[in-house]
Amino acid sequence: MIVMIIMYFHYLLLSLIVIHSISCHGNTELFPPTGASWLDVGPVLFGSEKWEQNAVQEPQVYWDAQNDEFRMYYRGGWGIGSVGVATSKTGVTWKKYEKNPVFGGGGSNISDPVSGFQPYVLRERVDLYLLYTTCSSSKGHTNMSLATSKDGYLWTKQDITISLPKGCSRWGNRVVWIENRNFSDTNNNIKSKKTYLMLQECAHGLWNIFLFTSADGFKWEVLNNGGPLSSLAIGSGGGMFGGPSFANVNGTLTPRNSSGLYNLWYHAAPAHKGVLPTDVYHAASKDLINWTISMNENPVLKHSGTGWEYDQTADPSPIITPDGGAFLYYDGDDNRSGKAAIGIAIATSP
């Protein structure tokens, strides 16, 4: 009973903060602020089901205009990983899909409980979703899975062709998007073609982010001569950087702001800290290769060092809501005990 009362007041406080944020930002905020810190107001989703193993993480949140609600994809499980879905009218209180998990652990007839790590959903059309996940094997997280869906709940596996970059041992988190890119034909006429792009975290000693491209979303090749995007490293380099994410603005994935700059949110740790703890950072780029880290390389969201955020804030998912609020979802992790919860932060003034 006491726990229920505490949780009630926790969500009440979150709701008041979110309402205040929306009223302050109004409809003038077209992109999450890049020179601001974020007010961490705590978890909004906990591991509560057996298949989640007291760990929910790697959130991806967007506004679903067709159903007039927020939708979240997330990974449930610590040593295992399947994909869950939750929905919300406010972005604060969430309802888990009653038939979770939707992929892996029996979801979508995929019985394997290690096939839903690092889920990312690309909504190409209203009736076409692409789900990319990491699959575990006897050699670790060395396989990637692709599935398609008409509604985002029932998935059908597809073939995918992609190889780990040279020197990498396993897959991590990812963000996938589509651009129309110009090219010159044999007559030097400028034409446009649809191009799929992916920022993909891979274990390259430590975790690093790599850039991939595809003509169809099914067959991929690595760019940047197969090397990591080293300008995303904090300080003199050598540290880890992963968990790439772009903002979702009122239901639309928006890699670039109005000036044409790519804006990336990700988590990282400087070289002297090794892999943990991680904080959330922001960086901008004109070409997806050369990045400038914002705020003099200070994090936009720091781990608290206690509770769910004992040694990580990670896997950010920034959004702008239809009301103009700027939210940053993330997972807070305690790697000592194998626990994780999904939290929300609200943008503060620069």
Structure notes:
With 350 residues, this protein is mainly β. The protein has one helix at residues 2-25, and strands at residues 38-45, 56-64, 69-76, 82-88, 95-96, 117-125, 128-137, 140-149, 156-158, 171-184, 190-204, 206-214, 220-222, 240-245, 247-249, 252-254, 262-269, 279-285, 291-293, 312-320, 326-334, 339-347. The protein is globular and about 60 Å long. Residues 1-9 and 19-29 have low confidence and may be disordered.
Task: Outline the secondary-structure elements.
Elements: H1 2-25, E1 38-45, E2 56-64, E3 69-76, E4 82-88, E5 95-96, E6 117-125, E7 128-137, E8 140-149, E9 156-158, E10 171-184, E11 190-204, E12 206-214, E13 220-222, E14 240-245, E15 247-249, E16 252-254, E17 262-269, E18 279-285, E19 291-293, E20 312-320, E21 326-334, E22 339-347
Parallel strand pairs: 15-20
Antiparallel strand pairs: 1-22, 2-3, 3-4, 4-5, 6-7, 7-8, 8-9, 10-11, 11-12, 12-13, 14-17, 15-16, 17-18, 18-19, 20-21, 21-22
